[in-house]
DUF4235 domain-containing protein (Nocardioides marinus), 92 residues
Amino acid sequence: MSKVWSVMEKGSAIGAAVVARKVLTTGWAKAARRKPPENPADPDVNIGEAVAWAVATGAAVSVARMLAMRGAARYYTKSAGHLPPGLEKDGV
């Protein structure tokens, strides 16, 4: 079953990251009335905008991945009757 969990874990994390980035890009474009920086490391990009984009994307993608992986772990637990490998509680 560990291969099943591995696929579920990676698939949910990747999917969540893609969706979060798309939502954030759309939201940024509407709020700032321009596209987000394509490459925040580019010296021609304003440092404040580069930092804001980096912080926003990092936080949004991390939270989305965590929520997706928790959902995948709940589904796995309901289906398999136990926590996924690596999430088992010691001595419980």
About this structure: The chain has a mean pLDDT of 89. Residues 47-80 form the longest helix (34 residues). The chain has one domain: 2-80. The chain has two helices and no strands.
